[in-house]
């Protein structure tokens, strides 16, 4: 039986998407402790925007945002071919695995370090390798919770908006439901994580301003990645065959028995 399952192309696709989705989310969370300047990345000066009474704003982002847009591309593709139940399944799986990973990070922080490892700090040009390890892997618990809650809620919003648009457009206008659902869900994602993680530190004006700067970046990336969704859709149809792809899309909409 297992051999027939592994030979089924739609099943292999779903397993591949699930593996990439979870791995990409975990990497994004792990590298999210580093902040970078988007302006410096492109060799320009900070934009110094003013929003909601906050001045001197620039695109200071976490490295995690470099990978999160791919999560929403995968979400839209899985939505298109496998339906909302599949999206909820891979989203919950990703949250469980990320939670497990952070639990292991915290356990690793409190395991007594070996003297030889501590002595290696000077050889690596690090003042205190244990402190550096703690700083990188010991993210603030509010940030972790905020990120996971924002991820789950935004995925639910994405699924809902995606299928609401698809019910009205059918299989036409993939760009509209993919981009539209991502733009709405990313707005939700941007503010949930900020409110949970920084509501006790930042003023609401600063949260609104920082959230809007983050959302502007995500908005732009979502539009730029729209051609990638069409490319992946065509590759899937070629891989499973046009007839099978059509059946998968109908099943994703709950129309397999009609």
Strand and helix map with partners:
Elements: H1 2-7, H2 9-31, E1 35-37, H3 38-41, E2 49-51, E3 54-57, E4 60-62, H4 68-82, H5 84-110, H6 115-123, H7 129-137, H8 141-169, H9 174-198, H10 204-224, H11 226-240, H12 242-252
Antiparallel strand pairs: 1-4, 2-3
Helix pairs in contact: 2-4, 2-5, 4-5, 4-8, 4-9, 4-11, 4-12, 5-7, 5-8, 8-9, 9-10, 9-11, 11-12
Protein model, in words:
This protein is mostly helical and 258 residues long. The chain contains twelve helices and four strands. A two-stranded antiparallel ribbon has the order 1-4. The chain has a two-stranded antiparallel sheet with strand order 2-3. β2 (49-51) and β3 form a beta hairpin. It is globular and about 60 Å long.
Helical percentage: over 70%
Q: Which structural class do the helices and strands define?
A: mainly alpha
Order of helices and strands: HHEHEEEHHHHHHHHH
Question: How would you classify the quaternary structure?
Answer: single chain
Number of strands: 4
Distance between the termini: 29 Å
Task: Describe the global form.
Answer: globular
Question: In percent terms, what proportion of residues is strand?
Answer: 5-15%
Report on the biggest sheet.
Answer: 2 strands, antiparallel
Q: In what order do the strands lie side by side in the largest sheet?
A: 1-4
Which radius of gyration do the C-alpha atoms yield?
21 Å
Can you give the mean pLDDT?
A: 85
| DSSP helical segment count | 12
Flag low-confidence runs: none
